[in-house]
Here is the input.
Amino acid sequence: MRFSQFPISTTKETPADAEVISHQLMLRAGLIKRIAAGIYTWMPLGLKVVRNVERVVREEMENAGAVELSMPVVQPAELWEESGRWEQYGPELCRLKDRHDRDFCLGPTHEEVITDLAKTEIKSYKRLPLNFFQIQTKFRDEIRPRFGVMRSREFVMKDAYSFHENQDSLEQTYWRMHEAYSTIFDRLGLDYRPVEADTGSIGGSHSHEFHMLADSGEDDIAFSTESDFAANVELAEALLPEQVKTDFEPLECFDTPGAKTIEALEKRYGVPATHSLKTLFVEDAQGELVALVLRGDHQLNEIKAEKIDGLSQPLRMAQETAVKTATGASFGSLGPVNLNARVVVDRAASVLVNFVCGANEDDKHLKNVNWGRDIEHYEVADLRTVVAGDPSPCGAGVLEIKRGIEVGHIFQLGTKYSEAMNATVLDQNGKSVPMTMGCYGIGITRIVAAAIEQNHDANGIIWPAAMAPFSVVLIPLGMEKSETVAAAAQALYADLKAAGINVAMDDRKERPGVKFADCELIGIPLRVTIGERSLNEGVVEVQGRRDSEATNVTIDAAVAYVVDAVS
Amino acid sequence: MRFSQFPISTTKETPADAEVISHQLMLRAGLIKRIAAGIYTWMPLGLKVVRNVERVVREEMENAGAVELSMPVVQPAELWEESGRWEQYGPELCRLKDRHDRDFCLGPTHEEVITDLAKTEIKSYKRLPLNFFQIQTKFRDEIRPRFGVMRSREFVMKDAYSFHENQDSLEQTYWRMHEAYSTIFDRLGLDYRPVEADTGSIGGSHSHEFHMLADSGEDDIAFSTESDFAANVELAEALLPEQVKTDFEPLECFDTPGAKTIEALEKRYGVPATHSLKTLFVEDAQGELVALVLRGDHQLNEIKAEKIDGLSQPLRMAQETAVKTATGASFGSLGPVNLNARVVVDRAASVLVNFVCGANEDDKHLKNVNWGRDIEHYEVADLRTVVAGDPSPCGAGVLEIKRGIEVGHIFQLGTKYSEAMNATVLDQNGKSVPMTMGCYGIGITRIVAAAIEQNHDANGIIWPAAMAPFSVVLIPLGMEKSETVAAAAQALYADLKAAGINVAMDDRKERPGVKFADCELIGIPLRVTIGERSLNEGVVEVQGRRDSEATNVTIDAAVAYVVDAVS
Here is the structure.
């Protein structure tokens, strides 16, 4: 590709409304152009990157036995009514009416369409398993589109849906997809982690999110320093620590006027947060008050709290008046001693000895409190959100926490959709059973932005090789004036093309400084500078995007050098 | 691809609601599946064909210097208000509101988005010409979707838009696109014609439609038997015939009670339709009545009538009461003699001698009427629709008329959009001028259906080589029982794959008859049957989709034979 015939539209100005670096660089490098909030045109340079991602995803999906099809963008409401999601789905589902006033939506996801398809196409277990995928434009009416294509309304997604006779078969495909996703992100050269995710209300035994690590990520991911373990921070298990053997001291009550927080207790009375308890009350749907007890420095994890046995969902934090009625004390003086309520204690809090907690009497605390001796009835559960340095639940290493951008999600759907939509097959015994399903998504366009979050410097984007719009750019200096330069550039360009290299030549009538800056901004992995002076010495200058200096390579060796460098 | 792992979903039943053969065969072969009226899923087999068409289109667009980008499906109303089309476009434009109640539409075409893009990206003539294309899902809310994907609501289109400093530059790109389109349809192996089309209200000096010839086409195309000339029947010029020299006979009036049609005149009074006139009255927007006179056997062409000088648009057929007031006669007895109205005569009618026409008195006609002698004031114009056998307006051969399916359209837009949306550049003189634009569309998914209309037989589809989902299918007979067959089939499959052939193996557990029938229905160009008996003779059976019999080919020569046959 010659840049004289290709629209390179870079700018030095940082767009005011772009909050994250990838959004800024994508606009500055001319990869995308905004049409409306969360709706972008992919410019030629950006589209090349998208196509590179699509190619890798398509190849690996096919390698893993998935078959490509293409479902419509516009979907009839009837199918969504069958699954029940026409009512359930919020305003992110963009609904519309056709000229005959019939209801449709823009597909944010395709479970309904594919389940309806499988229902009519697949009658027997003999046709199973089947895994269909598509790479398609989707629309979700985000309330606050932001970060450019990272959270846009229109985006390109690879979504796959698998159909099975039973759970065993689903598990096989599920792990094959897990492996395919890992291969995809490896091939794209990205720093990612498969992360255990919440299986949510659908159930199913497994769900993994694939996160790319980046400071601008919207999720916190906990990793083991010693193993592959990674989980969303919300979901990572906090282990039961070992108890340090210490003799019980006599229980004491002391006055703590006005000290209503863990911090105040630490500051004024020298009680370390790690040695005090915080007692929170939640109220379940039946109105039952339950005390949740954590170590002073720990945070309640609401997802974990919802999993406590015997509580009616949803839970909410109890009102102070209700708590005062039950305990006799206000917030800030609560504790598990002599409490007329169910007490659930976090694991870390449950191993404390001679600790401090509220006395259930305003402005009073207890010290040298001990489980068993002072509180007879309590349950222990995992209630807190893990923090960096916690032992990893996998048993190896400690947890580290980083921010991640979710770019993939694999999910065991089970029979949620096939039951609702009556998508059954005859099994090996001739019995009609709902098909077991899995679904597997990758955010194609989001990957492009996330890759930039991971790979950039002050001068611009640094594309991983597999994603780069061009592998190498030739920059001839003074091509218009020097026939030597023009001839050498043309020859090298032709030779690299012949060698199958995705090569570009910046033959625009621009100053060398502009070309160098553009080449760095748009993130081409390798550039070859062809100037008269160096040609007279028989060399061209080759510089990798991450290199601080150029390397002189003889003209004869240039093709082989470039081929080697970009492969 | 092994069919055991690929969803082949054929059926013998002809779907009741499919009117045309391509729609029937696409459903029967399992290429598409209907989701709603005019909305289809492309099944894996069908998608392979779509991708093949896309690949050829993409390559030829790039060869012709066009650059690919991707514009959004969902477009903001603001842009359409700028161009004026938000009001003008009818209910085919699918309008919707987002969660914030802002107006959007699903793009049926992208002039507004690309003009807005060019407006902000291109400031100087130095960046021109530029030709952008995309291959994209579009939506048009057809009032009556039909013929499957031929006239669907959601479809895939290649649309391109070029930008120029002036008309000369546009013309260059226009003809380059004309050539690229011809190459595309040639490569796809289709029978097509570039057809001169109406430039309509936008103007511009040229517009061509590309039509594929097929009986189910919705347009009538007139071709020269001797040249490349082709035009939409509505637009083809009817030439002025030479006049046969004959002496004028004396004018006579005769009674024709109840004979109010050309047919009645012919039947009862022996007047050939080719020798009588029909006189029609149109009324222009100012209320002026104009008589349009044609030969009895010819049809008025309304597009041509609208081009008569001096008439205010729109025209409509005059009411009989108005005509009777003006002429004194009812419909069926009208003629141009002694008429107090403007008379415009079609070329073919203007060379008749001693002809018959209505006498402008009910139930009376005139015979031996002659132009000049009996009618002094009249104008001659091209008013009729051409018919088969007319001399071609190109001067060579006569016209033949066939039905065509429009699969491409190239168009000179001029400055319609750039003026409305203020998309200007600085020209060579530093003056701000609106960019001159062209647009170029190809109906990707429609081509798939049209190709089937052209290429099928009683057994199913017959894909042109470049479009076929697989180039060759291997059909091993009794693979489960015969290790010889299994080994030979596996080896041939591997060798063909290694040779770069798009090969499939039908390793499903189905009877040979089912496999043969499916192979013909889905239209694979070549099949290789591998059976134990023929293997014992050292051969396999190779049969082209259009062949009536198979050819025995030795096993050693099979790869070379297939490679040669499908290349």
Observations:
- The two ends of chain A are 19 Å apart (CA to CA).
